């Protein structure tokens, strides 16, 4: 992978293993703050966590075209500039796919991998997000008076989802703008079953399997990981172990932060192993 533009990051912790966190679609690095603080410990000396804003999200640069390989290259370049590694890399959903691509293409950078509630497969389309994208596009940014006005006008009925999406809304002078590259994601969603974001760019046989240990975390109430996904996961990540968190939705780390922190603590403190 070639070098790419540096991404915005937030640091939590001052000593210990290097851990990078990658968020999902419409998220930001700071969505992992609670987990990172728990992992770093009260004195911040148990882990050095880097919370990454992926391209087209948060305060990171935008792309003209979506590509998991380009996302992974940007993450690799950003992490190497901080520390040559290796790193423990944790990714959720879109960030989980990015983390998998990173580990497959840059295995020397990734000592251990944690993939949260996503599989290395095509999910068909972005239909699960099309409603959110439409709501964001429909918000009349030029008419908003303040954040309360935006919240009142935003059509999403679920308070948690509304809060999650509106974290992307930022003041821009006298007006407002989306930090996330909504139009890029809308264009990808419009591709239907040809969506690049819904797909996965690596198939077994394309590259050497990743030889490091992998923790695969599934939400017990989510439908993103299914039993039939295990074969494809093992083909690319033969040292994978599945942890299913009962009662958790797709946003496992939000629903069950204590369980996720403890699982990650075990990952980063496990003794080095050989394949």
TrEMBL record:
Keywords: Hydrolase. One of its GO terms (molecular function) is hydrolase activity. InterPro entries: AB_hydrolase_1, AB_hydrolase_fold. It comes from the Bacteria. This is Esterase. Residues 17-256 form the AB hydrolase-1 domain. It comes from Knoellia aerolata DSM 18566. Pfam families: Abhydrolase_1.
């Amino acid at each position: 992978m070639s070098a790419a533009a540096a991404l915005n990051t937030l640091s939590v912790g001052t000593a210990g293993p290097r851990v990078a966190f990658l968020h999902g679609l419409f998220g930001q690095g700071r969505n992992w703050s609670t987990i990172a603080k728990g992992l770093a410990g009260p004195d911040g000396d148990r882990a050095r966590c880097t919370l990454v804003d992926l391209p087209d999200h948060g305060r990171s640069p935008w792309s003209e075209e979506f590509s998991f390989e380009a996302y992974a290259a940007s993450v690799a370049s950003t992490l190497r500039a901080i520390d040559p590694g290796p790193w423990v890399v944790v990714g959720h959903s879109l960030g989980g796919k990015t983390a998998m691509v990173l580990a497959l293409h840059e295995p020397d950078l990734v000592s251990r991998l944690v993939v949260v509630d996503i599989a290395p497969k095509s999910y068909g389309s972005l239909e699960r997000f099309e409603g959110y994208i439409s709501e964001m596009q429909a918000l009349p940014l030029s008419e908003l008076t303040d954040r309360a006005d935006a919240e009142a006008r935003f059509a999403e009925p679920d308070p948690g989802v509304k809060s999650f999406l509106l974290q992307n809304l930022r003041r821009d002078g006298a007006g407002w703008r989306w930090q996330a590259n909504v139009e890029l994601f809308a264009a990808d969603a419009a591709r239907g079953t040809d969506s690049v974001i819904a797909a996965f760019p690596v198939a077994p046989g394309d590259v050497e399997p990743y030889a490091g240990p992998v923790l695969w975390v599934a939400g017990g109430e989510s439908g993103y990981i299914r039993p039939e996904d295990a074969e494809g996961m093992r083909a690319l990540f033969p040292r994978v172990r599945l942890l299913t968190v009962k009662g958790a939705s797709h946003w496992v780390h939000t629903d069950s932060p204590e369980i996720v922190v403890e699982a990650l603590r075990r990952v980063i403190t496990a003794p080095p192993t050989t394949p």
